[in-house]
Amino acid sequence: MNGVDPGRLDDKELIKELETIHRTRHTTLLHGSNDALRAHNERMAALEGEYLRRHPRRSVAAGRTRAGARERGNGDS
């Protein structure tokens, strides 16, 4: 794996790494080599996994659930 082990990052560093990898995702998908995309996938999964491990009870917006998506789809929004 490339980069610092996500478990060794403090919360601020972890968030910064997540913001960076999400910002570069689209370009990597469209224009990166297969190796670059594979590395990006692995790094993103490691970072997101660490975030979820640290924040298992994170706040979830109602609109970001299946029920919320169905509500948005019924035309009442």
The largest sheet, given as strand count, sense and whether it forms a barrel, is: none
Give the averaged pLDDT, no decimals. Answer: 91
Shape: flat
**Quaternary structure state of the chains depicted:** single chain
Q: How many strand segments?
A: 0
| Strand and helix order | HHH
Low-pLDDT windows of residues: none
Please give the radius of gyration in angstroms. 16 Å
Alpha-carbon distance between the two ends: 43 Å
Number of helices: 3
Structural class based on helices, strands and sheet pairing: mainly alpha
Percent range of helical residues: 55-70%
> Strand percentage, roughly?
under 5%
Indicate how many domains the architecture comprises.
1
What does this structure look like?
- The chain has about 80 residues and is mainly α.
- The chain has one domain (about 5-75).
- It is built from three helices and no strands.
- The protein has helices at about 10-30, 35-55, 65-75.
- Helix 1 (about 10-30) packs antiparallel against helix 2 (about 35-55).
- The protein is flat, with a radius of gyration of 16 Å.
- The mean pLDDT is about 90.
